UniProtKB/TrEMBL annotation:
The keyword Hydrolase applies. This is Methylmalonyl Co-A mutase-associated GTPase MeaB. GO terms for molecular function: hydrolase activity. SUPFAM superfamilies: P-loop containing nucleoside triphosphate hydrolases. Keywords: Hydrolase. Its EC number is 3.6.5.-. Gene3D superfamilies: 1.10.287.130, 1.20.5.170, P-loop containing nucleotide triphosphate hydrolases (3.40.50.300).
Length: 328
């Protein structure tokens, strides 16, 4: 029987050689809940760590209907045509509630899904948002080791996922729709503060004029906020994911940001800070796993929930009992 060390060395060599089947297998191991799979994944990632970190990591978010998949398909295809290898990953908090899959995104990214220089991977289908983000980070490292030099991380849901993806990437791109009037009122200030760039999509045909007007409104709104860094003022651009217009200029700005911050050592510093957050996210995921899988807790939890719901047991008392069972 092949021992664990030999197995992870063989798999690591195959990943470094760019074998897609090996990459897919490694990601499946990283996402698995089985202890033996997790042990193998940890050893594999530790072995590959020196060969990671060479990619530009870009987070992409936007409201439903903004055209994320179309834009990512067009941007990814543009980048592979320029000689890049592109991996598209997703953080999907909705899947943590429903167990659903976002494999439909593969069908919406028609060009990238058949591009030999691209790789599309949906997020894990269960777990806490922190756990999903942590597994996405592991997937990102594995893709970098396999030679992908651009990682696009898409938020499929809304809410906390934006913060999670911002904590995974070097650059955070927020896609917006034209007709900014009503939408401008509903923009969460926190999302704008996270943005390294705002791109108004659907700036083609009749929508071009509306997109330019929206961009002007977003620029005015950004003047209210102080830049997060003296090195960078958040630009607002107009693009069309449908026609590809503006994607080359948008990517040039992303590269410019990466160059400026890289020269000052700020990309490396940010990634080190993200690694610390990753560590704590994994600790929290392990605690959640113990809550889900401990036989004693699984047997006792329904009675505690029923007692709290009936008002016969205080939530604090129930929480104390669960914490004690976990040794906390």
């Amino acid at each position: 029987m092949v021992d664990t060390a030999s197995r992870h060395e063989t798999l690591a060599d195959a990943i470094l050689a760019g074998e897609r089947a090996a990459l897919a297998r490694a990601i499946t191991l990283a996402e698995s809940r089985r202890p033996d799979h997790r042990e193998l994944a940890r050893a594999l990632i530790q072995r590959l760590l020196p060969r990671t970190g060479g990619a530009i990591r870009v987070g992409i978010t936007g409201v439903p209907g903004v055209g994320k998949s179309t834009t990512i398909d067009a941007l990814g295809s543009y980048l592979t045509a320029q000689g890049h290898k592109v991996a598209v990953l997703a953080v999907d908090p909705s899947s943590t509630r429903t167990g659903g899959s976002i494999l439909g995104d593969k069908t919406r990214m028609a060009r990238l899904s058949v591009d030999p220089h691209a790789y599309i991977r949906p997020s894990p289908s269960s777990g806490t948002l922190g756990g999903v983000a942590a597994k996405t980070r592991e997937t990102m490292l594995l893709c970098e080791a396999a030679g992908f030099d651009v990682i696009l991380v898409e938020t499929v849901g809304v809410g906390q996922s934006e913060t999670a993806v911002a904590d995974l990437t070097d650059f955070f791109l927020v896609l917006m729709l034209p007709n900014a009037g009503d939408e401008l009122q509903g923009i969460k200030k926190g999302i704008i503060e996270l943005a390294d760039m705002i791109a108004v999509n659907k700036a083609d045909g009749p929508g071009a004029t509306a997109a330019r007007a929206a961009a002007a409104q977003y620029k005015a709104a950004l003047h209210i906020l102080a830049p997060a860094s003296p090195l960078w003022s958040t630009p607002v651009v107009t693009i069309s994911g449908l026609t590809g217009e503006g994607l080359d200029a948008m990517w040039s700005r992303i590269e410019e940001h990466h160059r400026r911050f890289g020269e000052k050592g700020l990309v490396a510093r940010k990634r080190r800070q993200q690694d610390v957050k990753w560590m704590w996210a994994m600790v929290q995921d392990r605690l959640q796993a113990k809550l889900r899988n401990d036989p004693g807790l699984k047997a006792r939890t329904p009675a505690l929930e029923a007692a709290v719901a009936a008002g016969s047991l205080a939530p604090t008392a129930a929480a104390e009992e669960i914490a004690s069972a976990l040794g906390l």
